[in-house]
Write a structure and sequence with these properties.
The protein is an alpha/beta fold and 520 residues long. Helix content is 50%, strand content 10%. The protein is globular and about 75 Å long.
């Protein structure tokens, strides 16, 4: 960034991930070498709790005379201003006003990026006076009607202070749902449809920058990484991909008059294969808003649905996914992260589904588009078997930095975040030693499964036909990185996590807009 930028981050209501987004944007910028300040202007904020950092003992002043005394270093190149408890929203707003009016030059000299984590809510106007002093406004929401109504209300209330400047839109927990009446992409439309005509607004210049999917690994309530839960979730993701890839080719829209072939594909790919074709076609017509599809189209679709239902492999994949999801639910009810559940669905039930499925997948022809996905499922299942061992779990447990809290050893999330963001050399060396220690164990587990069930055809191989050990090493390293850092509330640096890729894309898009010079 050519000069310091001030980014205000708002939300119409609480619970949409505004502060989590603010913290992660700050951490990502700091990790890139940008000295970043997070101004905690939200009286209900939990920034320091999110960072697992103790609150400063000194109280907030009513008037800001010395901004440096209110800047607390929480990670390399990352400082938080005003993290203490606030007497009121007015006190917080007054301190931010002082900061932006009397100490703006100090901000510009000290930081490359200043983020203001604004109060959640749309009705209060306590923060409107300082909002106009920001260079950019990021509005955080999620795909839920009340969140969109609250965000629309905020946009209506800031029209005068923000004028006609663009507002950047950040979607959290984003899942496209075109088959439902609620469109998560149409914030203004959802707002206008749910308020009185007198309260409706003209669409401002809303620029979507991020569509971050749900990510249970960001759950900060877990003391330690929920290893088995996360590994089983990764198996479900792979099974979903297999179910999708096992579908026969979708019928081409051709001259059928389909409103959107993409919408048709989305709808049809959600079929489980055991539905009544005529009922599904009727649902599709309702989904597309068509009174009745042409007879030729109905015939093509019916034929496709029948062929989908006649695929035993796809049904096997879907059934396996259902059992794994049930097991995840059982795991999540346990108090201890590494406890072995004894609920209605056991790990043996998962074994009874996955092992035969892998055997079926191993019989696919070598040119099948499902082969690579099947190989990935084998790898994921190998990790599940590996970390079902208490010895493997203990290796992870002892690696994590810990501290004593009321006589109990607890995970020190703050120390781990600092080492992760600061790219601490000693921490990275310990991490690679951990990977080096566990990789041979994983390899032996993989070989055991392959030899036991005859799954040689599912092994990843290089161009010479040998087992692609480098590919397995990269996959294992990426998975270990995910396991170790799960539950930190941090998305920076995760290459394979869908939410991290979406966050990174959103961050880069937001940065592109921030470096553009502000017009007068």
């Amino acid at each position: 960034m050519s000069r310091s930028r001030i980014l205000a981050i708002a939300s119409g209501k609480g619970g949409v991930g505004k502060t989590l987004t603010s913290v992660n944007i700050a951490l990502t910028a700091a990790r890139e070498g940008v000295r970043t300040a997070l101004v905690d202007a939200d009286p209900l904020s939990n920034v320091m709790t999110m960072l697992d950092h103790p609150l400063p003992e000194r109280a907030l002043p009513d008037k800001l005379d010395d901004p440096e005394s209110q800047a607390f270093i929480v990670a390399p190149r990352f400082e938080v201003l005003f993290p203490q408890a606030k007497k009121s929203a007015d006190q917080a707003a007054g301190l931010v006003m002082d900061l932006l009016t009397d100490h703006r030059s100090w901000l510009y000299e000290r930081y490359g990026l200043v983020i203001i984590d604004m109060p959640a809510g749309a009705e209060s106007d306590t923060y409107f006076p300082y909002l106009s002093m920001a260079d950019a406004l990021l509005l955080v929401t999620n795909p839920e009607p009340t969140a969109h109504v609250a965000a629309g209300t905020l946009l209506k209330n800031i029209r005068k202070s923000w004028d006609k400047r663009p507002v950047y839109l950040w979607h959290n927990k984003y899942v496209p749902r075109p088959e439902e009446e609620f469109d998560p992409d149409d914030l203004i439309g959802n707002y206008n449809r749910n308020v009185d005509k007198s309260d409706r607004i003209e669409p401002p210049e809303l620029i979507p920058v991020a569509f971050v999917p749900p990510d249970p690994t960001l759950d900060l309530t877990k003391a330690d990484p929920p290893v088995l839960v996360d590994l089983h979730r990764s198996m479900v993701d792979t099974l979903d991909g297999l179910a999708d890839a096992a579908l026969p080719p979708l019928p081409s829209p051709g001259k059928s008059g389909f409103r959107s072939s993409a919408l048709v594909a989305y709808f049809l790919r959600k079929t489980a294969g055991n539905e009544n074709p005529d009922t599904l076609i009727a649902d599709l017509e309702k989904f597309l808003g068509a009174e009745k599809l042409p007879d030729e189209v109905r015939k093509e679709l019916r034929s496709w649905l029948v062929s989908t239902g006649s695929s035993p492999l796809r049904r096997q994949v879907i059934q396996a996914g259902e059992v794994v999801n049930l097991y995840i639910g059982d795991l999540e009810t346990k108090d201890r992260t590494f406890a072995s559940p004894a609920g209605p669905v056991s790990l043996k039930a998962v074994d009874r589904e996955i092992a035969p499925l892998l055997k079926s997948l191993s019989c696919l022809p070598s040119n099948s588009p499902l082969r690579k996905m099947a190989g990935l499922l084998l790898f994921r299942y190998t990790l599940v078997k590996l970390f079902s061992s208490e010895a493997a779990q203990k290796v992870i447990f002892t690696f994590l930095p810990r501290r004593d809290e009321k006589g109990q050893s607890v995970r020190d999330r703050h120390r781990q975040i600092v080492r992760l963001i600061g790219k601490d050399a000693a921490y990275q060396e310990r991490y690679f030693a951990l990977v080096k220690k566990l990789y041979p164990v994983m390899s032996r587990q993989l070989n055991h499964l392959v030899n036991t069930f005859g799954l040689q055809s599912l092994l990843f191989r290089d161009d010479e036909g040998s087992v692609a050990r480098n590919a397995y090493a990269r996959l294992f390293n990426a998975t270990m990185y995910e396991i170790i850092n799960s539950g930190l509330g941090v998305v920076a640096g995760f290459r394979f996590r869908p939410s991290s890729r979406a966050f990174r894309k959103g961050f880069d898009e937001l940065k592109r807009h921030l470096v553009q010079p502000r017009t007068a």
